Amino acid sequence: MTQTYYSEYNQFFVSVDCIIFGFENGKLHILLGKRKLTPGRGLWSLYGGFVNPAESLNAAAARVLYDLTGLNGIYMRQVGAYGEPKRDPGSRVISVAYCALINVADYDENLRRQYDLRWVEIDQLPTLYSDHETMVKDSHEMLQKHIFTEPLCFSLLPEMFTLTQLQKVVESILGKELDKRNFRKRIKQCPAIVGTGIIDKSSSRRGALLYSYDSSCTDFHL
Amino acid sequence: MTQTYYSEYNQFFVSVDCIIFGFENGKLHILLGKRKLTPGRGLWSLYGGFVNPAESLNAAAARVLYDLTGLNGIYMRQVGAYGEPKRDPGSRVISVAYCALINVADYDENLRRQYDLRWVEIDQLPTLYSDHETMVKDSHEMLQKHIFTEPLCFSLLPEMFTLTQLQKVVESILGKELDKRNFRKRIKQCPAIVGTGIIDKSSSRRGALLYSYDSSCTDFHL
DNA sequence: GCAAAAGTGTTGGAGATACACCCATGA
DNA sequence: TCATGGGTGTATCTCCAACACTTTTGC
């Protein structure tokens, strides 16, 4: 694209950074790696990438996520733009943060090892590169804020899940425990969460009913 | 700033666009102008500006608002980044939208005329340049979402205001009427809204008590 | 005295919270 | 038989919504 107009103005590198949430061992995790670019090489960091000329911000975020995980069609949400002049020590870079929620089981372990990435518990984060800690905090808050009104938690779970699993996911996002009976009462009032009739015997002797999320159902609420 | 690293990547124009809300004649308005730059010259548009090299996004937004209104220290909030490749017909421009709330009375009419800007009712918007309608819609929704939990409405009012004025502001933001008694009951439960003891006689024969917002009070809620 | 805005309480319903025990099964 | 996680109901409380009349005073 030629710069026909505006040529007297400055241009900037623009990147997208992905906050990728996953649920494992009853805890909320995010995917972190050691930064490979100079400057900041070796620091813990979110995974990101620069925006291409003909690509929307959303598309750039989806591409970066795909490159990293091989996953397509994942729900992503813009968290915000971060533009302090010195936020990147290398050059002026404006970054747009996106969060994504993935089911850890869908993510190829080999790919994870290949990129040398780690799942890190959300409340045990190391010091991160640049302003990435702010991005993580902001996206975590956004997640907490929308968890009851938008069908986000299912992205962190397999197709079918037990109510206990669902409750653990919600608890891990909120960072607090919930009452089991009240939680299940609410679930029953949500028509988008339906029992499958299948019993999962892997997590208990008695077995637990598996539920699934019906995305065609419009009125979701927990 | 030199482009020491990252030099193989592309750069982009980055602008900020301001959605400036004001309250007038019992209605919520936003400030619009006719676009002066080509392309799109003459179309109704938000006011914006390009980001400078050494300036944060927040600072750029504050500068643009100051240039336009002469107002400083106004609370602004990032709405989001907009980056469709064709969103600006002139060149690839990534824009970060900011909303601001100002008290119309603080804004110099001469300056408004000088820039040829208009206060337009939020529900009577004309067709806007590029994706500015999306920006306005997004920021209006953000405003509605946060109006009860953050002390935003006071930015639209003078230092001292009657409860009727406050209610009208909230109603104009929500786009619906509220019950007067329930509204006032809520106000009384908010320690940050305090009576001044001064009676305003301009709006009624009987006179109405003027209130003010105590920003040092931490727990705000309507 | 009347028009115009200010101010003021009560009630009912819905939804949230707190809380404890039995069930089914594999080992 | 016992350890483990699955599953269920009730009483209370809080919050929100609906609703109508009296007060003050300038004209």
Task: Note down, in words, how this protein is organized.
The structure is a homodimer of 222-residue chains. Chain A is an alpha+beta fold. Chain A has five helices and ten strands. In chain A, the strands form two sheets. In chain A, strands 1, 2, 3, 4, 5, 6 and 7 form a seven-stranded mixed sheet that branches. The first copy, chain A, has a three-stranded antiparallel sheet with strand order 8-10-9. Chain A is elongated. Chain A starts with 10 loop residues before the first strand and ends in a 9-residue tail after the last strand. Chains A and B meet through strand 1, helix 1, strand 5 and strand 6 of A and strand 1, helix 1, strand 5 and strand 6 of B. Chain A binds a DNA duplex (27 and 27 nucleotides) through helix 5.
Short structural summary:
Helix content of chain A is 25%, strand content 30%.
> Judging from the principal axes of the Cα atoms, what is the shape of chain A?
elongated
Q: β content of chain A, as a range?
A: 25-35%
Helix content of chain A: 10-25%
Low-confidence stretches of chain A: none
Tell me, rounded to a whole number, the average pLDDT of chain A: 95
One letter per element, helices H and strands E, the order of chain A comes to EEEEHEEHEHEHHEE
Taking the alpha carbons of the first and last residues of chain A, their distance comes to: 46 Å
Structural class of chain A: alpha+beta
For the largest interface in this structure, which chains are involved and how many residues does each contribute?
A-B, 38 and 38 residues
C-alpha Rg of chain A (nearest Å): 20 Å
Number of strands of chain A: 10
Largest sheet report of chain A: 7 strands, mixed
The number of helices of chain A is 5
- Quaternary structure annotation: homodimer
